[in-house]
UniProtKB/TrEMBL annotation:
It comes from the Eukaryota. This is 8013_t:CDS:1.
Length: 159
């Protein structure tokens, strides 16, 4: 929504999250708000004149963000955040002189060894919490190198 409008939240309800078959929680909420869609000057003028924003806002918005259907796709697992213990494993591998690609292969090998059956293996490999993609592993590697070695573009190097 544009920043030069004014908004007044009248009601916000945090609803129980929807749980998918993969135990992935999707947030649900309801929001009632009033929006003044006039120009910024008019908004400030109305606010100074009246201070009754509910009466002066020309648009009422009711948002109900609820998931009521099952998200049954392996792709939905690829958007989950990485677990802290997986990040710590990656940092340990980098300390042991692993490259991002060898760390990625090592994580995947560990998942192959820990899976009890093919179905569990497919779920583990699709889940980003346990198996981050190469781009994320490379980003963590860059952060590790910047922390340990220092960035090559930082000010102290040029002095």
């Amino acid at each position: 929504l544009p920043q030069n409008y004014t908004y007044q939240i009248q009601n916000f309800n945090n609803l129980p999250p929807h749980k998918t078959q993969e135990n992935f929680e999707v947030a649900n909420f309801e929001l009632d708000t009033f929006v003044n869609v006039e120009s910024e000057k008019a908004t400030i003028h109305l606010w100074l004149e009246c201070r009754q924003l509910v009466l002066n806002h020309s648009l009422e918005v009711n948002i109900k963000f609820t998931h009521n259907h099952v998200i049954n796709a392996a792709e939905s697992l690829s958007f989950r955040p990485i677990k802290d213990n997986v990040c710590n494993k990656l940092l340990e591998l980098f300390k042991d002189s692993h490259s991002p690609s060898s760390a990625h292969y090592t994580l995947e090998d560990n998942l192959h060894l820990s899976a009890l059956n093919d179905q569990e293996l497919v779920e583990l490999l699709a889940d980003r919490t346990n198996n981050p993609d190469y781009a994320l592993i490379y980003y963590i590697f860059q952060q590790y190198c910047d922390t340990i070695l220092g960035s090559c573009n930082r000010k102290p190097m040029l002095e």
